[in-house]
Amino acid sequence: MQQLANLDCFFLAKEMNSSLAGGFFENFYDYGEGLFRVRFSKQSVLVDLRGFAFVAADGSFPEAPRQPSSFAMLLRKRFESAKLESVAQLGFDRIFEFSFTSKQYGRHSLVVELFGKQGNLLLLDSERRIVKPFAKASYAARSLADGIAYVLPPSEKKHPLELEAGDLDGKGRIVSFLSKQTSLAPFYLEEACARAGIALDKDASALDAAEKKALLSAFASLFKEPSPCVFLKGGTPFAFSSISLKKLDGSECVGASSVSHAASSYFSSIERKQPQARKGDLDFQLQSQEVLAGGFEVKAVELQKAGKWVFENEGAVAELLAAAKEKNGGSLSASAKSLGVKARVEKQFLEIEKE
Known about the structure:
Blueprint: H1 6-20, E1 25-32, E2 35-40, E3 44-48, E4 52-56, H2 70-78, E5 83-89, E6 95-102, E7 106-113, E8 120-124, E9 130-133, E10 137-138, E11 143-144, H3 174-181, H4 186-196, H5 209-222, E12 229-233, E13 236-241, E14 252-255, H6 259-267, H7 279-312, H8 314-327, H9 332-338, H10 341-354
Antiparallel strand pairs: 1-2, 2-3, 3-4, 5-6, 6-7, 7-8, 8-9, 10-11, 12-13, 12-14
Helix pairs in contact: 3-4, 4-5, 7-10, 9-10
């Protein structure tokens, strides 16, 4: 299954920033199975943690869940009436940041990491610390947990536009070699080779000066204006691209009005598999249950103290209740209103009986 590549995210960030920035957050839906929807004043963004994020028509979304997840409720509260300031790609990676401003929280953001099984959503505060991750995670170079400063995944690879001729000296099949030098996905490395007229089975050690120059020019050409399209086989999408592909010349291609449209057309044709359980949401619910349990424990201690006092003053309490019943025609509830301080003792006694 094809996913968004970092070059797709480059164009999508620009596209979403152009169409969404300036709008206001309206709602957030967690459909389960790693599928989410962020709704703005006029449009919505579909997020699939397996590797997709794009603007989609409202009619293309599932029915809203009857009971929102705790993570959805948190984001709804945090982003209520917030204005979307910008959408940006982070680190030429498969990461989007939706930056918001609001009177209550100032500048804060939602980061979307599209890493397949390790995909995540993260709510960041104004200091770029993680308020809540959808799923807590810990890696060798960074951790994703409450209160920790957000750090991008490390990478030693160069941006494609930073490559120089000297970076193309090496050995190995050309695409495999280039994937170790630059962060561009193999899907588009193949296209760069096709545009440079370099066979995919060529060894990097055999590149001459003219081919290296052509390859660098081909990398630059990938970042020009997008020309999104969907590639069909028997009328069914089998690939999509943000740019026209020389490597797929001869394939049935249908142009798309936007990168989001191309990604959406392909996405709607694939069959979703059951993804990872919603660990982040389960953690959040567990914390909420722990807070509630703590409150019940406090109440239990208070009731035990009240019960002990009643037991130690059994005679006085019996006389008090008998007098109250006689005065109010045998009604404990009516007597509670007329006894002032004494009513509090009776109320405690009644609560203990209910427990």
